[in-house]
Write a structure and sequence with these properties.
337 residues, alpha+beta, Elongation Factor Tu (Ef-tu), domain 3, six-stranded antiparallel β-barrel, four-stranded antiparallel beta sheet, 5 helices, 12 strands, rod-shaped
Length: 337
Amino acid sequence: MEQDNNKAKEMSRRNRSLLASIAIFVVMLAVIAIMGLVLITPPSETTQGQADCDVVRVSGKVPGRIVKFYVHEGDIVHKGDTLVSIYSSTLDAKLYQAKSMQEAAAATSMKAEHGTRSELKTGAYNVWQQAIAAETITQKTYQRMQNLYEQGVISEQKRDEARAAYENATAAVKAAKSQYDMAVNGAQAEDKMAARSMENAARGGVMEVQSMLEDQFLVAQCDGEVSEIYPHEGELVALGAPIISLSKLNDMWVSFNVREEMLRDLPVGKEIKVVIPALDSEKEVPMKVYYVRDRGSYAAWSATKAYGQFDSKTFEVKARPASKIENLRPGMSVILK
């Protein structure tokens, strides 16, 4: 009997110990939960953007074959530096054709300006003098016939025939004189103007081809870094095809895509603080917002609840550094806190 009582007391003691342990454990969990609610704060929202810059694509007006590149990817170039040379046999042929047309037009213009050759002038003058001599003879013949007609020696018909011959000779003198004047004066003013215009047009054709030939050597249109070269030496390039890309590293900016409810904190002209992990993950860099634009309906963020939320559009926000940031490269991540 006494042994059973001892066992009951032992079981009761163990139960009390277990209950006490459970109570202590529950209290500790409650304390930890309360401390977590008090001490743990949600992380601040961060927005990640990207550094970027303008890219100028260099292309030419000459379809041809790449002869030589004078730069390599990563080189820093300045405005006016020669980048690449292109050869086009088609343009050489067009230049030869244009120059030939210019020479032909110049010869025509010179002929119009200088007038008729001296041999033709002499021939026209001789014809004119012959016509004058013929007119003199027919005039004397007509005068004699008129006198004989008045004396009643010849008929009226004979007198009229002599007068007609005289009038024809007079007309021939006028025609010969006109031909001689034309030979002396040369082409008309309109013909000379037309010849000069044709020469100018031919000269313009030569200048056009020469300007295209100048594009056989492409130069940099701005200062920048050679970021990409598309073809290789010896390859053919089409008219207007991009050959080299230049990155304007002197004008860098960063862009963020943010929901529209964040725009109240990012108005144009506001100075913001960003961190560039690739350069220094701790240092904050000042920048100024200069551009805000919506990205279109395709970038809309749809609400997941039927009530209490709305469709929020995505906006692109751009900011420029307050001062130049050394070693900042396009594509680097930028964190806005």
